[in-house]
Amino acid sequence: MYCYAASYIGRKQSTPKAEFLTNVRADLEIIEENSLIEMSSSSDPYPPIEKDLELTRKTLELLSKSRVRVLITTKSHLVVRDVDLLKKIPSAVMITITTLDDELAKLIEPYAPSPTLRLKAIRELSTRGIPVGVRIDPIMPGVNSDEYSIVELLEKVKEAGAKHVVTSTYKAKWDSLKRLLQALSEGGKLREVYVGSGIRVHGYMYLPRAMRERLLLPVVKTAIKLGLTVATCREGLGQEFNRAPSCDGSHLIELSRALKG
After folding, report:
1. Domain match, 76 and 201 both
2. Distance, C-alpha 108 to centroid of its chain
3. CA-to-CA distance for 100 and 102, rounded, in angstroms?
4. Residue 177: which domain range?
5. In angstroms, rounded to a whole number, what is the distance separating the alpha carbons of residues 205 and 229?
6. Which terminal CB of the chain, N or C, has fewer other CB atoms within 10 Å?
7. How many structural domains does the chain have?
């Protein structure tokens, strides 16, 4: 519902790009050693069709034969399937969990696996030696911003083995905001704070800075208390909100190297 990418790629079934693997092979011949490959920064590398298509898995097979680093960002538990390949590559995985409430997740992330399955994936990846972080992103006021629920979520992901947390507030665009207003009974409050009080930044509606700080502070404080690195993205906030070598979680890859010996 909230994904910004839908504004330019639309909402449709995933379709593989023509000659994708051929293009990957060609790129790997010229890419610099130790380059960071992100899968992916705008769309999930594990859509439902990946279970049968295995295009992401075939890509990882190619990457495992090259001297590159890999950072995967996904909402899917299917990533666990590819642990055997991830163990051959300096890699880390970031899994998005915006709430532990499976019913709320069905409303705001209707096509994603349940938070229960994603929490299980964090545990399985961590147990099998893959460094894992969590994206609590986006936080939407009045939707998934309850402080008690955020603390519980952080405690659960820490217990499951997560090492890093990325967090940020929802950045509204008209198309995603309309979808949320339709899906949520309390959606009118979102319209009030974004349309009525929001700040326009590069085509997005941001919450006022003070509100963003108030929403993110519980995440940052709790993460630090639990011994997790934590960072905010696209917020422009001070150092007290960024307590990690990287925002995206790419610093976890060095932990991967250490674990692989």
Report:
1. no
2. 14
3. 6
4. 171-206
5. 28
6. C
7. 2
